[in-house]
Amino acid sequence: MSAHVRSRALRAAAFWLLLLGSLGVLVFPFAWMVMGSFKTQAEFMAYPPRWWFRPTLDNYTNVFVRNDFLKFTVNSLIIALGSTGLSLVLGVPAAYGIARYRQTGLGMLLLTARMAPGIAFLIPWFILFSKLRMVDTYPAVMLAHMVVVLPLVIWVLVSFFEDVPRDLEEAGLIDGCTVLGVFRRIALPLARPGIVSTAILGIIASWNNFIFSLILAGNSTRTLPVAIFNFVSYDSLNWGGLTAASSIITLPVLAMAFLVQKHIVRGLTFGALKG
Amino acid sequence: MVALMAFPLAYTAYLSLHEWYASSVVGPAFVGLKNYLALLTEDERFWPALVRTLEFTIGSVILSVGFGFGIAHLLIRRFPGRGLARTIFLLPMIATPVAMALVWMTMMSPTIGVLNYFLRSLGLPASAWVASPRTVIASLLLVETWMWTPMITLILLAGLSSLPAEPFESALVDGASGWQVVWHVTLPLMRSTIVVAALFRTIDALKIFDIVYVMTEGGPGFASETLNLYVFQTSFKYLHLGYASALIVIFFSIVLGASLLLLCVRRSAV
User: Fold this and answer.
1) Which residue out of B96, B193, B201, B233 would a mutagenesis test of the A interface target, given it has the greatest number of A Cβ atoms within 10 Å?
2) What is the extent of the structural domain holding B2?
3) Domain range for A22
4) How far apart are CA A258 and CA A90, in angstroms?
5) Which terminal CB of chain A, N or C, has fewer other CB atoms within 10 Å?
6) Taking the model in full, what pTM does it have?
7) Which residue of B has its CA nearest to A215?
8) Smallest Cα–Cα separation from B92: which of B35, B13, B26, B146?
9) CA dist list (Å): A76 to A28, A72, A250, B156
10) What is the ipTM of this complex?
11) C-alpha B180 chain-centroid distance
């Protein structure tokens, strides 16, 4: 009997060890980032690494005052909101159509878009925008981001619209609603929480995008991921500034992630799993 | 929608049959399949990049599906703080990849990085991480695995929680051990979910760009130049757009081919 108890205690200990171990590995880089952002240059360069130190806000003031991160944050916000907003305008009706009328052809096209390397879209966009002298304008970067955001939005919305019970819509039709009326008065309100989550997923996707902004955004539209990358090439040893900038770009996304945590897997797998 | 997606793809395919530098004054000149031929027979960077990308992808799928399967078994249990633990699992995949790659770069500094500090504390030799051609791919795999294992974990967790209870109960009645249950009951039932998880991991690993570009730019030398990196350099460093388009067509076909292969595996598993 005591052997049985001991083996159970051993198993519980192994469980907690594995669980806390894997959580520790996942969290450590974030802890390192936030910790580093409050260190002075000398403390960051110290070896062995310092775990206790007097925190300073200098890195954050430097990033905003000297490196203009406020502007890049605003750029990122404008582009994320713009590309997500436009994607919703086009994506909500499209997703409803796919969900209700089984437009599998369009569905396959979207899945292909998930597989296509972003760079396959980039060269034509680059040529077009260069000819139109639109490189480094908000519309150009927004349109390019829509290549990522729009398929994501449609695909996730399809899975939300499929959750709307059909009976309700049929009842609406019987009561004399038009198809458009059913969409506006029944499907849309019922799917609203899903639409909000989808919008957040779209904003995150645009906020995190690097390759499109790298090519199409210039001095006046530079987004945070590109700005932080340039920051390193200019000033490769300023780790305090680097981790402060990383914290600034990451923390809003993590906050948004808490809001939509149930739907994140749905977004990343394009609605294949409702998670 | 079509304008946004199909037009660029069609234009890329069209351009792949032309010789054209964006920097030159003359426009694209039709050359037929010459770009493809040069790529497959003469290009000294294409094949190594392809092999590297495939190795990286296979490594990434094995590592993240392996760890993901294990961790999903931990997270399916009931324990205090489970909701919080699951939320923490979302963090790496949702954080901005460029920022996290930079943070990993500071951790991997050969001289004062915290990872080498950990290795030395454990009595292990320090590593050069991304600074050496011998360890660069493994180091990038570490970052990629850290970033994407959670997603695989959550996919597999969703699969695990929807499994029927009876097969497990009858296995226990028959006196099967824990490992036997995993091998003979869980794995066969989870096959389709595992293939889906592997599919998404394959698509994304084949296309890896952000963390490689930020951490190594394909170096040292070309030691970590993956296909996407090579395409990018050809397009926007050398501005050789015709040739780059041919590369993209091949690159896209590889991703498409790998996905179709996995979808077939999935169909045969059901």
Assistant:
1) B96
2) 1-45+230-248
3) 2-31
4) 27
5) N
6) 0.88
7) B236
8) B146
9) 27, 6, 12, 33
10) 0.87
11) 31
